[in-house]
Design brief:
Membrane topology: Multi-pass membrane protein
Number of domains: 1
Shape: elongated
Main location: membrane
Order of helices and strands: HEEEEHHEH
Number of helices: 4
Number of strands: 5
InterPro entries: PMP-22/EMP/MP20-like (IPR050579), PMP22/EMP/MP20/Claudin (IPR004031), PMP22_EMP_MP20 (IPR004032)
Distance between the termini: 7 Å
Keywords: Glycoprotein, Membrane, Transmembrane, Transmembrane helix
Radius of gyration: 18 Å
Protein name: Epithelial membrane protein 1
Structural class: alpha+beta
Length: 161
């Protein structure tokens, strides 16, 4: 049981770190241009230098929603980690980690909403570039989506023995 708890804890910390990286780094979409590689993220457009991400007026609300939901997913994931640690030492034997699982599933939902909006609105569009493809931050966000779902379900099923 201790090994299972430790494993879940390590995967949860890895998920938090990957969420931070995928939200902060600007490599959601990558393309090539005559100046080299161009990458866009949630915040900046980077070539050799970074500048404010140019967004069409009809896509601005979508980008703000993606930014907000990714930040919320980080917050909920950290809150779930703190709840897990608190419940680990305060729960009686035989009790389940319901609160931790519920908060982690809210994190999962926030990631789902953010990445789905980004996929629907911004896939295939990198300003000033050709041949756009997804970057590592986009892939990390989907990996975090899977990990947070599995962790949330494990927390709901897991009993403290």
């Amino acid at each position: 049981m201790l090994v299972l708890l430790a494993g879940i804890f390590v995967v949860h910390i890895a998920t938090v770190i990957m969420l931070f990286v995928s939200t902060i780094a600007n490599v959601w979409m990558v393309g090539s241009s005559s100046f080299g590689t161009v990458s866009t993220g949630l915040w900046l457009l980077c070539n050799k230098t970074c500048m404010q991400l140019p967004v069409r007026s009809q896509d601005e609300a979508s980008l703000k929603a993606v930014q907000a939901f990714m930040i919320l997913s980080i917050i909920f994931s950290v809150v779930a980690l703190v709840l897990f640690i608190i419940q680990l030492f305060t729960l009686e034997k035989g009790k389940r980690f319901y609160m931790t699982g519920a908060v982690m599933l809210v994190c999962w939902m926030c990631i789902l909403i953010a990445v789905s909006i980004y996929t629907a609105r911004f896939t295939g569009t990198v300003v000033y570039s050709t041949n756009p493809h997804h970057g590592y931050c986009f892939i990390l966000a989907w990996i975090c989506f899977c990990f947070s779902f599995v962790i949330g379900i494990l927390y709901l099923v897991l009993r403290k023995k």
